[in-house]
Structures
1.
Amino acid sequence: LSMETENSLLDQTTDVIQEALLQFIKDHFKYGRSAKTAYQWSGIMGFTPDEQMLIGSLPENSAIHLMAGCSGHGMGLSFHAAKVLVRSLFGHPIPAHLALQRFSFEHLP
């Protein structure tokens, strides 16, 4: 609905999306018109330069493992990505297009 406001690094809700979600509830659920909002959430759409997830251990500390960069598809991708990450702990390779090591982090502090 609003790529320019949703494609952001900010962790905050945006009015256009929240209003559309609330309208969807009102239009499609039996008691939607009387529903009250208890919580609202805003997820950062974590994109990588090649728009593929990052899975692997950190180069500077192999005891820290990472699974990120779901590009707004975290609910659908995270379960299988977590399986890949856990399997890697037991020696199974992470597919090259998802492996954290495909990027250089030398420029980071």
2.
Amino acid sequence: MKIFFGDLVHTWSGSGIWTTPLNIGYVASYAKKKAKEINLEISTQLFKDPTNIIESIKSEKPDVLALSYYVWNENLNSKIMSIAKELNPNVLNIAGGPHFTNINANLRGAEVFFDDISPDCDIYIVNQGEKGFWNAIERFNDVNNSVQKLRQEKIDGTIVNLFPRNNDSNLSSEEKFFVGENIGPLDDLNDIPSPYLNGMLDDFFDGPYIPIIETNRSCPYRCTFCAWGIGTQKLLRFDEERVMKEIEYISKRTKNAASLFIADANFGILERDADFAKEMYKCSTKYNFPQHVIVQWNKTRPDRVLNTAKEFRGITSVGASMQTLDENVLGAIKRKNLSAEQVMKLLTDLKDLGIKETPFTELIIGLPNETRESHLHANRELINLGFSVQNYNLHLLPGTEMDTEESRNNYF
């Protein structure tokens, strides 16, 4: 079975913040491991460039096309899936990513996505991708790679589009889509072979891609504008030894990037994160990478953030994304913050250690209960405290609580 994975980006501008496709690397690594267990032979290819994947679809005709959907590439993905179906109606088009979570994995959500966004998609994997994707592939193999037969299957962890491009208005949502049961996340992240250490991501070191590393998965907070961590109950960790090996593996091979992204929602939440920071600084001095580390810091433990930040020794920026300073807004979006005073204390402590930082923070324009004046007040307060402030527009992301009908009715 030939499977093409795509984490596609728009390339018309010739440049952008393009990252190594760790997401599809995890799904592909897990699928290959599970296939080997049942003696199923599969081949995988990973893509970022849409032109490359189109040419490969034309020449190699994969059995499965699997694309990661985000708000920034859903139209691009839908076009690629349309091209794939035109070239081979028997290709199985699978989508994944945060567009569908426990919150909107229902018939109404399916109708919006499959009818309006991506009518050539056959199956969407809900929540984290590894288990649900393998469920679909295993079932696809059971029906001898028949897309028509697969649409008759009940596949948990997925939403199945039973009648792609069928505009029969007499069909109900129940007749058009199947929404599978929630299968939950993996019990152990280490069941996923490292796509770095097994060489699956090696080709991307030659391109203009910024490496990403993940040390743990999930988020203990549930900010209503964010899909991070939905579908998980606890923080899961990759083994420390594995992460250390990945840091060195990436650092030795990266030649065309200066930065490293950490994909954790709250780096510094665990004591061991200081050890990872120390290893990144060690590699920075040894291999000249990473020169800068991009971090989403933990929001409630300034002591651990301090211990972690000092081990970076200046190769990362320290701060806290406030999003708002208004208590009514924080309540509406179910968010907890480090206070500005806690962040300033953190920076003073770092300065005492010889690490001088201009603190950064972020605010979101248009949050529930926010007013023009409260937003401007937050900017003034943070600037007066010496913060570098970035303002972002609010986006009602699919799969988040804020995008639900109830939230829209309450606040928008």
3.
Amino acid sequence: MTPVFDSRQCTLGEGPLWHPTRRQLFWFDITGNRLLSRDATGPRAWAFAENVSAAGWIDHDHLLIASETALFRFNVETGARQDLCPLEADRPGTRPNDGRADLQGGFWIGTMGKKAEEGQGAIYRFYKGELRRLFASITISNAICFTPDGRHAHFCDTELRQVMRVALDPDGWPQGDPQVFLDLAAERLNPDGAVVDAAGTLWLALWGAGRVAAYAPDGRLLRSVPFAAPHTSCPAFGGADLATLYCTTARQGMSPEALERYPLAGQTFAAPGIGRGQPEPHVIL
């Protein structure tokens, strides 16, 4: 069985980020309005007054965090918050979801309706102080990740069960139309968060399937890593040599019977020796 990294239960665990200079994993409980982590002193947590879902690292002490009203700079040592720009602050029915930094120093963040209303979300990119909407009419934004050469991005609308791939220009902005990279509709699989390792393999959490599946750059299924929770939500590589695959999970939408069957649901897992990730790039403000 894959070891539990942190036993705190998240209603909707998401957004794991391995901070390369702190050598520390951060992640979120979106609907619990919490940022979580562990360091040498033990478990740590920060509470917010709104949903928070994803982060990129700016420097040793600062994260860029996406909330339901803003992208903000957050000091994990002092708790100081500095809002950088609004994020759908005029739309109280939406919240942030999946997000990740690209190799050019931009930060991609997806939004969605709080009740997953059809087409109410979008995918944005924040780069050097500018927030630009890239793709609209998204129901459940997910699978934001980037190839090791920085020339392509992946993303998905979980509702459509397709992971898309789009070319990027030298500054990291999309060019051309997105193409289907994975079509999981026939298997009725639900793509959630994803990360690409140093070899270009895409590791995709499958919501409801209790596993993270690895796909080659040509879309071939290579292997799957099972977890003792059905709602695997997002993977991240970290640890020594970036060889540990962390995965957040969720309890959202599970019946009492399912929660009894899967008592570890909502906890955060760590599978050692799985592969070798690429270091998460820092966000350029």
